[in-house]
Amino acid sequence: MEPSKFDQGLGELSEYAINPKPIGKGAYGLVHQGTNKRTGEKVALKKTQIDNYSDGIPSTTMREISILTELQHPNIVSLKDVVMTDTCIFFIQEYCNIDMRAFLQ
Where do the structural domains in the chain lie, given as residue ranges? Predict the structure, then answer.
């Protein structure tokens, strides 16, 4: 198996300029558009709330991180970084200007 291209891990939220208006909503949180301040790259920031940190990170979140770190395919949005704060986890992903939902309707 090819090694994962996800090698940054646990970056800082201050590394990204985040548009406060969400561009989408998923089952577990909101998606914002942002920019990596260092590289200028557009990214999508998927924000997942952590309701009770004493229970740890939800298994569904851990599973998603694990799967996204392994998947490397041109038709799958890549995971660039994961940022944790006191109340949420941000998945920093490749930005796409088209929502899959538009094609499914």
Answer: 13-104
For residues 6 and 92, give the distance between their C-alpha atoms in angstroms, rounded to a whole number. Answer: 11
Which of the four CATH numbers 3.30.200.20, 3.40.50.300, 3.30.920.30, 3.50.30.60 does domain 13-104 have? 3.30.200.20
Could you give the CA distance from residue 45 to residue 81 in angstroms, rounded to a whole number?
Answer: 9
Give how far Cα 95 sits from Cα of 1, 3, 75, 86, Å. Answer: 26, 22, 13, 25
- Picking from 65, 85, 96, the residue whose alpha carbon sits closest to that of residue 14 is 85
% the chain with pLDDT above 90: 41
pLDDT digits (tens, 9 = 90+) for 56-96: 788 888 898 899 889 889 888 899 999 988 888 999 999 98
**Dihedrals phi, psi of 76, to nearest 5 degrees:** -120, 130
